[in-house]
Amino acid sequence: MKYLALDVETTGLDPMTDQVLEIAGVVDDLTQPATKLEDLPTFYAILNHSRLYGSPYALDMQRRLITAIAHRKDRSQILTPGEVLDQFVTFVDAHGLDRQQLLVAGKNVGTFDVPFVREDLFGNDEVKFDYRFLDPTVWFLFPDDVRPPDQRTCLRRAQLDPRHFPEHTAMGDAHGIVALMRHGMQRNTGFTLDTTQ
C-alpha cells in the first residue's frame, strides 16, 4: 500500500480563518519494507501569505516559520499557495499517487490537516483526498488512556526516539508518522520495516 504521510503547521486551529504556514509530505510504500526513512520521497514548502491571520498562541509557536518568511530565508522553499499546489500536484504525479483519491496518513489528519489543506491550498478539484485516512495512533492506545495519545507519546510507546522527529515541524511530524505506521504494521503483521531515522 502506497500512501502520503501529511502534516501541516498552521496559524491556529480553525481552517476557515487560520492559515497553513508549512506543509510536508513523505511517500511510503509498505510493499517496499527495506527502504530507509531518509530515502523516501519528500515534499516540503513554507507558505508565503501576504498577510497572516491566526491566534497569538499559534503565531508565537510558529515564530521560526514567520521569521523565515519575513527574512526570505530558504527562498526556494517559500512559495505562494498557488505555487505549492502546482509543485504538490507534480510531486504526487511523479510518485504514482492518485491525486483524485489521495490516501494520506497522519495524527488527526482527517480532522485537522486535510480540512486546512482543502480550505487554504487545494480549494479546487486538482487534489482530492480518499475518504479513508490512516492514523497510526490506534496501535499505541493503552486501556487506561483518557484520550488518544499525542505523537510524541506514540513514538515513546513504539520505543522510537522522539528527538529524531522534531515536533511542531511539518517534516519531523510527517517522518514520525511513517515510523509509527511502519512500527504498527510490523507489530501487527510481522512485516520487517525500517523505522530508523
Helix count, per DSSP? Answer: 6
Low-confidence stretches: none
Strand arrangement, largest sheet? Answer: 4-3-2-1-5
What is the average of the pLDDT values? 92
How many runs of DSSP E, i.e. beta strands?
Answer: 5
Shape: globular
* Known CATH architecture: 2-Layer Sandwich
Question: Which homologous superfamily in CATH is the superfamily?
Answer: Ribonuclease H-like superfamily/Ribonuclease H
Helix content: 25-40%
Provide the gyration radius in Å.
16 Å
H and E order: EEEHHEHEHHH
CATH class label: Alpha Beta
Q: Could you characterize what this model shows?
A:
This protein has 197 residues and is of the alpha/beta class. It has one domain: Ribonuclease H-like superfamily/Ribonuclease H (Nucleotidyltransferase, domain 5, 2-Layer Sandwich). 35% of the residues lie in helices and 15% in strands. The protein has 6 helices and 5 strands. A 5-stranded mixed beta sheet has the order 4-3-2-1-5, with helices on both faces. It starts with a strand and ends in an 8-residue tail after the last helix. The mean pLDDT is 92.
Summarize this structure as a short list of keywords or feature phrases.
35% helix, alpha/beta, five-stranded mixed beta sheet, 6 helices, 5 strands, 197 residues, single chain, Nucleotidyltransferase, domain 5
Topology:
Elements: E1 2-10, E2 20-29, E3 42-47, H1 56-61, H2 63-70, E4 78-79, H3 81-94, E5 104-105, H4 109-121, H5 151-157, H6 170-189
Parallel strand pairs: 1-5, 3-4
Antiparallel strand pairs: 1-2, 2-3
